[in-house]
Write a structure and sequence with these properties.
Blueprint lengths: L11 E3 L2 E3 L4 H11 L3 H13 L4 E3 L1 H20 L6 H10 L4 H8 L11 H13 L1 H8 L9 E4 L9 E4 L2 E4 L7 H21 L6 H4 L10 H11 L3 H14 L16 H10 L1 H13 L3 H11 L3 H20 L3
Parallel strand pairs: 1-3, 4-6
Antiparallel strand pairs: 1-2, 5-6
Helix pairs in contact: 1-2, 1-3, 3-4, 4-6, 5-6, 6-7, 6-8, 8-13, 11-15, 12-13, 14-15
Bound molecules: zinc ion.
């Protein structure tokens, strides 16, 4: 396996010898030992060579690194359920990825990505890598895109964690919270900024967002709600009616743990209370792929026709939106 000519000096230190690139023989050996196509190995090795620091590698370690990066990419491609974030971090570090820069790039020049702690940044990057079209749709300014600016802050927003308003998504710091809490909160707010706007718009009349369960509201509020609906699509109305069914049976709703942003019970209560909150929450549950299992579990427990029909409508509505966002 020894190369015929002396290797030029370069970033690799392979088995004690410097090299800019692998010889075809070495490449073939890595490919054979990692059971990957030579072309794939070549790409991964090119990335490894981009790392500025010297990498003292043995052939064995290189084979392992190539395998690991490929496995990581495969996981990112399939994305759901969440891959081991440590594996992703190791894979990205091996590939020389600057996580903060990557996050800013995937979110159309978001600011303050450096404020996000490593593991949380890796997790959000993993989410966005799994659905790159979503980051572009959220932040892009072209037709069918949502033109949102994302700002990662250093300070904690103790009430909501993150806030979306007027095309600005401000994400506070989540010290000590799990990566899932961070990602779920981000995706929930991004759901207000995208899916909710797609379905029904930015601002809802109070009576639409929070229905009058006592039947005592009259006058202007009713007129405003009627006017609002006259300008909305049948699909929006259908989705809303589905929510009306599900909010009467809170046990049918899915409450996830969002750390300091809210316990599972609190997250269900918010969905019962407010249509906008329901939209953002089920969007987050769909985008992080926990909704299908939940719906199946509910249908095992409660097979009533109205609940079945309502969940089908909700899942269809979410899917219709997902189809408008490129992969
Ligand atoms: Zn919300």
């Amino acid at each position: 396996m020894e190369p015929k000519q002396p290797l030029p000096s370069g970033p690799f230190l392979l088995d004690g010898k410097r090299a800019d690139r692998l010889t075809p023989t070495q490449l073939a050996e890595v490919a054979a030992r990692s059971a990957l196509p030579v072309a794939t190995v070549g790409k991964i090795v090119d990335h490894l060579a981009d790392i500025e620091a010297e990498l003292p590698l043995t052939m064995e370690r290189l084979v392992e690194a190539v395998r690991q990066v490929d496995a990581t990419h495969a996981v990112v491609r399939s994305m759901y359920p969440f891959p081991s974030l440590d594996d992703l971090r190791i894979g990205w570090e091996l590939a020389g990825t600057d996580i903060a820069a990557e996050l800013e790039h995937r979110l159309g020049g978001a600011s303050g990505a450096g404020n996000v702690p490593g593991a949380q940044a890796v997790a959000l990057n993993a989410f966005l890598a799994g659905w790159p079209g979503f980051g572009r749709a959220l932040t892009g300014t072209g037709p069918g895109q949502y033109g949102v600016n994302v700002e990662f802050q250093r300070t904690v927003n103790r009430v909501q964690g993150a806030v979306y308003q007027d095309r600005l998504l401000r994400v506070g710091a989540f010290p000590g919270e799990t990566t899932l809490t961070f990602v779920r909160t981000f995706v929930h707010e991004a759901g207000h900024a995208t899916f909710q706007r797609y379905l029904i718009g930015d601002r809802l009349p109070m009576l639409v967002d929070q229905p009058d369960d006592t039947g005592t509201v009259t006058g202007d509020a009713r007129t405003e709600a009627a006017q609002f609906w006259s300008q909305r699509s049948p699909a929006a109305r259908e989705f809303y009616e589905a929510w009306m069914v599900l909010r009467r049976k809170p046990a049918c709703l899915l409450g996830l743990d969002l750390g300091f942003v809210g316990s599972p019970e609190k997250r269900v209560a918010r969905q019962v209370e407010s249509f906008a909150e329901f939209c953002a929450e089920v969007f987050m549950q769909m985008a992080t792929n926990v909704l299908p299992d939940h719906v199946l579990t509910v249908l095992d427990r409660d097979a009533s026709q109205d609940v079945l029909k309502a969940w089908i409508t909700v899942v269809r509505g979410l899917r219709a939106f997902a189809r408008t966002v490129e992969k």
